[in-house]
Structure formats: structure tokens, C-alpha cells
Design goal:
Elements: H1 2-20, E1 23-33, E2 36-37, H2 47-54, H3 64-69, E3 72-77, E4 80-81, E5 94-96, E6 111-113, H4 123-136, E7 141-142, E8 157-161, E9 164-172, H5 178-191, E10 196-202, H6 213-224, E11 229-233, E12 241-244, E13 247-250, E14 255-258, E15 267-278, E16 281-293, E17 303-304, H7 308-316, E18 328-329, H8 334-337, E19 339-343, E20 346-347
Parallel strand pairs: 1-3, 1-14, 3-6, 4-5, 6-7, 9-10, 10-11, 11-13
Antiparallel strand pairs: 1-15, 2-5, 8-9, 12-13, 12-18, 15-16, 16-17, 16-19, 19-20
């Protein structure tokens, strides 16, 4: 009798363990500029000077535990890792020497998008330096800069976690003519066996708290083309979240750790999707945001919010109040809970 009871307990523990392993959690964070404007290189309080003083583990030290508890984390890398001095004739050029890419080794980040409006700050050579610096650290990356060519910079990401293949596409300033190109890349990833496809779009207007009207229809087209997640960045502040056909659209995930923008809204977050792994593939069952706030000059660390009022204020920024055709806005309750369950692509009551 005793042996039977022990055996039954062991079976229950095994089943419980198996059940716990039947989910996949993906995290998405916003703009990460592991560096500074060229004018600030070497100055006290700059990002790299702070890392020199505090160590490579400093920038993500207050949030790393959250990014390591999930199964896979995506970040937008918005800096050029190079020592070159010849840069584009523009207002802001972002850089850090190649060794600072090691910050990602102490972050919990698993892959970065490199397609954004700073990718060419130091021209083709600087971008090549960036990819080489990431590769030297073993940091997976993806992004499409030249969609009409077969250059090496046109890179798709494919990552396998818990037997699930995750594909990733990255486009900067997407145009109407890019819809077909993005769709072709989604199809390529499907043909490679990807069960989930993430499309990273560097888009929208900077420091605007809501997406532009064209982004609604654009997002629908990309999801109709086969995307499972649209992950947006570029505005540097948070914008609302919507769902279309049960698929999430993060219009802007804000700044996460950024070396040259101390005067924008510091609210940010860790956007998490939990999928139930079924015989028919991954099924989205939960969306959760961990409210955070980032810090400026001399610190640069995002940290989780704990004050209920501050958390609610941040989460309200993700709820769109206008009606958009065929789109689901987050429910009002999200401002209190920061989480919503989904059943068959619809929000659970």
C-alpha cells in the first residue's frame, strides 16, 4: 500500500512537471542604446563611462531576473558598435566601441533586432562592425536593411525553444511597398518550419503617445500575411496595444535602456506572451506586462515599478480608447491587473 502511494505521488509530480513545461513565454523590450551620441563619447555620466565604472552587468541588473525567467527575450538594438569616426550627416549618431556589446551577455536578452533608423549611422562599414561585435559575443540578431537585394545584412532569425521554432523579421520605416517583401520573408520562415513568426517594425512618430491611423491597416496586412506578433519600436515612449485575429500588436514598447534620451517619458515595460504548447502548435493564452521605468544620465537602468498608482498610470498608456475596425483594445481591467487571458483568440471574461 505504501509503495503504491509513493508511486502515485511520483506520477503526480511527473505529470505536474510535464504540465508546467507545456508553455512558452516570450518577452519583448524596447529600444536599447548601449552607447551614446558621438558628442558624448568619453564624457562623465555617459552610458559607456557608466558601464566602465559599474561593469557590463549594470544596465540590466534590476530587471535581468525577469528576462531570464522567460523562455526567450527580444530587444531592439539601437546603437552602432564601432570605433569608426566617419558618420552620417544627421542630428544624432549613436555609437559604442565593440566591447560594449558584452552588456547583452549580462541582460537575459536572447536576440536583437538591428533594423532601425540608426543602423547606417556609420554607413555599411559601421553596420558590419555591429554585426561582427554581436557575433563575437554570441548574440543572435536579425534585420532587413536592403529588402531589394541579397546582401548579408538581410538576415532572418530562426530560434528553437522547447521544440518550437520562432522566426523573426525586422524592417525599419516600413513602406506600403514593403508589405509584399515582409510577406515573402514570413513565408520563407514558415517554409523553414517556424511555428511562430515575430515581425519587428521600427515605425511610427517619435514621442507620440498613440499610433498613426495608417499603422492600423498596415498591422492588419502584416498579420493577414502570417505574422503572429507585431513588435514595434522607434517612438521612444509607450504606445497602445491592440489585438487583431487574436494576434498582438505592440505599436511601441518605449525606451528600455537608452544612452541619449533622458528627457522623454521614462515609463517602459516587459511585454510577455505565454503560449500553451499543443499537438496543433503553440496557442496564445496570456498577455502580461511588467511595468518598469527607465533612468537617464549616470544610471540608465530600467527597474520594475512597485507602487500601485505608478503601475496603473503606466498600464493605462497601453489601453486604446477609440474603436478601430476589426481590432480589439485591451480591457479597462488591464490597468489594474497588467494581464489578460485569451481563449480562442478572444479576451477571457
Amino acid at each position: 500500500m505504501k509503495r503504491t502511494l509513493i508511486f502515485s505521488l511520483i506520477l503526480l509530480l511527473l505529470f505536474a512537471s510535464a504540465a508546467a513545461a507545456e508553455t512558452l513565454t516570450l518577452s519583448f523590450i524596447g529600444d536599447c542604446s548601449i552607447g551614446e551620441k558621438v558628442e558624448s563619447v568619453g564624457k562623465a555620466g555617459s552610458y559607456t563611462a557608466t558601464v566602465d565604472e559599474k561593469g557590463f552587468d549594470w544596465p540590466f541588473s534590476l530587471v535581468r531576473e525577469y528576462l531570464e525567467k522567460d523562455d526567450f527575450t527580444f530587444a531592439n538594438n539601437e546603437v552602432i558598435f564601432t570605433s569608426r569616426k566617419n558618420h552620417a550627416d544627421k542630428k544624432t549618431n549613436l555609437k559604442a566601441a565593440a566591447p560594449y556589446a558584452q552588456v547583452y551577455l549580462h541582460s537575459g536578452v536572447d536576440a536583437v533586432n538591428t533594423a532601425n533608423n540608426h543602423a547606417m549611422d556609420f554607413f555599411d562599414e559601421g553596420y558590419a562592425d555591429t554585426l561582427a561585435a554581436l557575433a563575437a559575443c554570441g548574440i543572435p540578431h536579425f534585420g532587413t536593411l536592403y529588402p531589394d537585394t541579397k546582401r548579408a545584412q538581410d538576415r532572418l532569425g530562426v530560434y528553437e525553444v522547447k521544440g518550437i521554432k520562432i522566426g523573426a523579421v525586422g524592417f525599419s520605416y516600413p513602406q506600403d511597398s514593403d508589405v509584399k517583401k515582409i510577406a515573402e520573408r514570413i513565408q520563407t520562415l514558415r517554409e523553414e518550419g517556424c511555428d511562430l513568426v515575430v515581425v519587428a517594425l521600427h515605425w511610427g512618430r517619435e514621442v507620440q503617445s498613440s499610433p498613426q491611423s495608417w499603422q492600423f491597416s498596415y498591422a492588419r496586412k502584416i498579420i493577414d500575411a502570417g505574422a503572429d506578433v507585431i513588435w514595434g519600436h522607434h517612438p521612444h515612449i509607450l504606445q497602445q496595444v491592440q489585438f487583431y485575429q487574436g494576434k498582438p500588436i505592440f505599436y511601441s514598447t518605449g525606451n528600455f535602456t537608452f544612452g541619449s534620451m533622458s528627457n522623454v517619458d521614462p515609463d517602459t515595460g516587459i511585454f510577455q506572451l505565454r503560449y500553451q504548447l499543443t499537438d496543433d502548435g503553440p496557442v496564445l493564452e496570456n498577455f502580461t506586462v511588467i511595468p518598469c521605468r527607465t533612468q537617464g544620465k549616470g544610471d540608465y537602468r530600467p527597474y520594475p515599478l512597485t507602487d500601485p498608482v505608478e503601475m496603473e498610470t503606466m498600464l493605462k498608456k497601453l489601453i486604446y480608447k477609440k474603436t478601430v475596425k476589426n481590432m480589439q483594445n485591451l480591457p479597462a481591467s488591464f490597468a489594474k491587473t497588467g494581464t489578460v487571458d485569451l481563449i480562442n483568440g478572444e479576451f477571457a471574461e
